[in-house]
Specification:
about 325 residues; alpha+beta; Jelly Rolls; Phage tail protein beta-alpha-beta fold; 13-stranded mixed sheet; 18 strands
Length: about 325
């Protein structure tokens, strides 16, 4: 009695199939096709078959299954295309050889020279400078953290940011640099730009100083096309309504002045200003609700905390009150 493999081998070499063979093959194609996978491999290369331990049989089987489901709805559709089917099975098997060989080499390479991930944290009140293996430099703002590999071995250079950082990315046209920050992915080849993506902020902001930057929103209910930013452009992603807005700004250098200890604001809500001041000076500052909607035009350029608090209070018609471990802004406010 013929085994499944023997029958498949016979049908592989037979030009004219009997009705019984047609019916059997149609039923076979509906189920496990691992034997056909091996027959196709053997027809291609004995050497490949001998090395089948390297093959990802599940992946190849899934490819073949999808092919068969599309072209085997009825026996009449199947068998005029029998040779094509076997050729497609062969092609899928060959693809599996190369793909699995690549995966195997990749796994072996990672075993010999593993990639390790590091995380740098800048606490409130401090800045951190980071140099990556590709020559990229990053200034990490207070209250931020960056996760990155010790080497970039794949086709992309990817890091994850929580908080704010200024990037000077080393140019590499074959390896895009990607920053994951919440629901925003920022992709560049080599440029300088700022990403502000604190978890507690209402928005994520990407500001370009030089070069071109691509930004895309991921995992959002509102779909947005990718946005291309050029120098002195800023993209704002609002978390509440998942909107992306790109606009020209007067001077991107003002946005990155925090690296020199400066805090500069142009019609900025008090809530955003307080968040920055708290991170920079590592303090807790509270404010009456009626003050939070006030906006400020101010430059706090390397001022001591007490001077910043007094100036901020004067600008919004309030006063500062010192509590046990924090400060409070109280007053009528700007309205």
């Amino acid at each position: 009695m013929e085994t499944v493999v023997e029958r498949l081998e016979r049908l592989y070499k037979t030009e004219n199939l009997t009705p019984n063979d047609r019916s059997w093959l149609a039923d076979y194609l509906k189920g496990d096709i691992s034997e056909l996978y091996l027959i196709a491999l053997e027809g291609f290369s004995k050497d490949v078959l001998e090395k089948k331990i390297m093959l990802n049989e599940y992946a190849s089987g899934e490819m073949l299954k999808n092919i068969h489901e599309r072209i085997t709805k009825t026996p009449q559709q199947v068998f005029p295309m029998r040779k094509l089917l076997l050729k497609m099975a062969l092609a899928a098997s060959v693809a599996a050889v190369f793909c699995t060989g690549y995966v195997f080499r990749k796994q072996l390479d990672n075993w010999i020279d593993p990639v390790t991930y590091q995380e740098t944290v800048a606490l409130n009140g401090e800045l951190k400078m980071i140099s990556l293996s590709d020559g990229t430099t990053i200034c990490l703002n207070a209250g931020s953290r960056l996760s990155y590999p010790d080497k970039f071995k794949q086709n992309t250079r990817e890091v994850t940011l929580t908080g704010e950082a200024f990037f000077k990315v080393a140019h590499n046209s074959s390896k895009p640099f990607i920053i994951h920050s919440g629901k925003i992915n920022t992709t560049v080849l080599g440029t300088s730009f700022n990403v502000k993506a604190y978890e507690e902020d209402k928005a994520i902001k990407v500001t370009v100083v030089s070069g071109k930057v691509g930004v895309i929103a991921k995992g959002v209910t509102v779909k947005h096309p990718p946005v291309l930013l050029t120098p002195n452009m800023q993209l704002v992603y609002t978390k509440t309504n998942e909107t992306l807005v790109a606009q020209k700004i007067d001077d991107a250098s003002l946005v990155i002045s925090w690296q020199q200890g400066k805090l500069q604001y142009h019609n900025t809500p008090l809530s955003d200003v307080l968040a920055d001041v708290q991170r920079k000076y590592n303090v807790v500052i509270k404010a009456d609700k009626n003050l939070l909607n006030c906006t400020l035009y101010a430059d706090f350029n390397n001022m001591p905390l007490q001077k910043v608090l007094k100036l901020m209070a004067a600008l919004i018609n309030a006063h500062v009150q010192k509590e046990d471990s924090f400060y409070t802004l109280k007053g009528k406010g700007c309205n």
